[in-house]
Amino acid sequence: MTLAVGPQYGFGLYVHWPYCARICPYCDFNVYAAKDRDTAPLLDAIIADIQAHRARLPDHPPLNSIFLGGGTPSLLSPDEMSRIIEAANDAFGFTQDVEITLESNPNDVLRDAPADWVKAGINRLSLGIQSLQDEALSFLGRDHDSAAARRAIDRAQAAFDNLSIDMIYARPDQSPEGWAAELREVLGFGAPHLSLYELTIEARTAFGKRAERGELTPMPDDDQADLYELTQTLCAENGLDAYEVSNHAASARHESRHNHIYWASGDWIGVGPGAHGRLTVKGQRLATEAARRPPDYLSAPGPTETPLTQLDTAREFLAMALRPVSGLDLKRFEALFGQVPDASLLAQLGDQSLARVQDDQLRLTAQGRLMADYIAGQLSPY
């Protein structure tokens, strides 16, 4: 068996900025209230972390992508964004078509000049609208209203031709008619990329605690599936086919290159409090995790590195490769697992219209993508 993963399948940098103006009740990320914190030491530590990774990865190629996520990295100033980007370029260099994404909230787009973000080096914006209904925005704990969301989209489009709009659907009691109207309005803006996520209630979040107390009832799975299928239909009708379970793009040029690194089991560095990474060094796959609390991150000598077994690596590859419509490379499956997938199972997936095999690629159908995790479990030979 060989390790058919690594930077040859893409090499990216994820930067986690953990601070938010307000913490949303559905969020289970490693985030903290911004308040009046002195963030300069954290920025310096992130830059030092990037520089230290160069020594750990002397043979890695130039970066294909940078993703500034969080948290709310749009709270950074353009000069601070530029410092991070320059540090990454100094350490590893960039490919000619490097993608540099910034996650942003609408209020930050309205407060700042997005053109200054472009000057800092950002060339792709991911805008967290989440809804265009005031009642839903209040329920989701967002600090903007629908009018601000619409203004932010207009302003972002004036600066970025590579714009993604993020939305959350399958909210409790959301009707198909209500979601269809909301999605059609979003599609009408003409953004070339949409990330459309079903609301997930995680146990340790404010929503999770409300659900445990019986104050919030998640949408039933069958109703969520109906809304998912409606989403696929409306997006396809408007020229934004799904290229992954939750992501839709007008063309291959607008697909998230950074996310493709995850799905292809490439390598990515994770810097910032709690950031995760996957690195391949001398034939060994490593899972990295930075210290979660900002004060601990400042004093940590580097991320925790956990060697992954061949089976761990293979299972991770399988779970991620099924998500994009490009599908699972069966030759890489064989290289990682040491055997081909069960032929009768592949035939069964085809008979059930869940997947199809063509040119050594196993591709899930839209119906199959609803069951991607289950199918991954079935395909794993161990």
Description of the structure:
The chain has two domains: 254 residues, Alpha-Beta Barrel (TIM Barrel); 74 residues, Arc Repressor Mutant, subunit A. It is α/β, with parallel strands linked by helices and 382 residues long. The strands form four sheets. The chain has a nine-stranded mixed beta sheet with strand order 9-10-8-7-6-5-4-1-11, sandwiched between helices. Helix 1 packs parallel to helix 2. The model has no long low-confidence stretch (mean pLDDT 95). The protein contains 16 helices and 17 strands. Strand 7, helix 7 and strand 8 form a beta-alpha-beta unit. It is globular. It is 41% helix and 23% strand.
**Proportion of helical residues:** 40-55%
How many strands in all?
17
Total tally of structural domains:
2
Which structural class is indicated by helix and strand composition? Answer: alpha/beta
CATH architecture of the largest domain: Alpha-Beta Barrel
Biggest β-sheet description? 9 strands, mixed
- How much is the radius of gyration in Å? 21 Å
DSSP helical segment count: 16
**What is the CATH third-level topology name of the largest domain?**
TIM Barrel
Strand content bin: 15-25%
Q: Would you tell me the overall average pLDDT?
A: 95
Strand order of the largest sheet: 9-10-8-7-6-5-4-1-11
Regarding CATH, which class of the largest domain? Alpha Beta
Instruction: Identify the overall geometry.
Output: globular
Terminal Cα separation, in Å?
A: 14 Å
CATH superfamily of the largest domain: Aldolase class I
Unreliable spans are none
Topology overview:
Layout: E1 11-17, E2 19-20, E3 32-33, H1 40-56, E4 63-70, H2 78-92, E5 94-104, H3 106-111, H4 114-120, E6 124-130, H5 134-139, H6 146-159, E7 163-169, H7 176-188, E8 193-198, H8 206-212, H9 221-237, E9 241-242, E10 247-249, H10 257-263, E11 267-271, E12 276-281, E13 284-289, H11 294-299, E14 304-307, H12 310-321, E15 328-329, H13 330-337, H14 343-351, E16 355-358, E17 361-364, H15 366-369, H16 372-379
Parallel strand pairs: 1-4, 1-11, 2-3, 4-5, 5-6, 6-7, 7-8
Antiparallel strand pairs: 8-10, 9-10, 12-13, 13-14, 15-17, 16-17
Helix pairs in contact: 1-2, 2-4, 7-9
